[in-house]
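During the reporting period, our protein records have gained a structure token line. A sample record is set out beneath this paragraph:
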Amino acid sequence: MRINKNLIGNIIILLAERCKPLYHTKLLKILYLIDEEATKRTGAPITWLSYNVWQYGPVSEDVYFSKIEGVNKFSEFVKFEHLTGEKYIIRPVADFNDSEFSELDLQIIEDVIREYGHLNAKQLVDIVHSKDSLWEKTKRTVGIQFSGQNKTSPVALNFAELLGDDGFKKTVYYNTLENMELQSTLYDL
């Protein structure tokens, strides 16, 4: 996460500027869709956030819990403004900086915003819940059952499963993942 904090923070700024109003659930789903699309196109997600199988679709806990005051890992980029009940709106506190992104990254983000940015949270949840989605396949394979009390799970989605039999993209995925883990280890030294 430390490696990608600026990149993720800037994506959230961009989404808050371009997908108004950007509510918390919508943010979670669009971030996931950006990473899914990037993985399908290039073999690797843009953010490398971990997404768990939760009742309303894939959720990055790093982003989900940022809505809690004092826990926002992206506070230098955005604020999560509590409206009513469970509603939070995301507002930028800094200007978008594209220096962390390749041209292809920006194109993928723009394509996802164009396709999904106008949809509401319910519509996005329906998309990530589709019968052929990675979320649905993982939920079914692992046997996750949600209820009134059970709305989360610790099961993470494996983006490599989006790549099917594409050996080249799988190599890109695993090599990039290994590089990210190595860099993370070096930062911890």
Strands lie at 52-54, 57-59, 78-82, 88-92. The mean pLDDT is 93. The CA atoms of residues 119 and 172 lie 31 Å apart. DSSP finds seven helices and four strands in the chain.
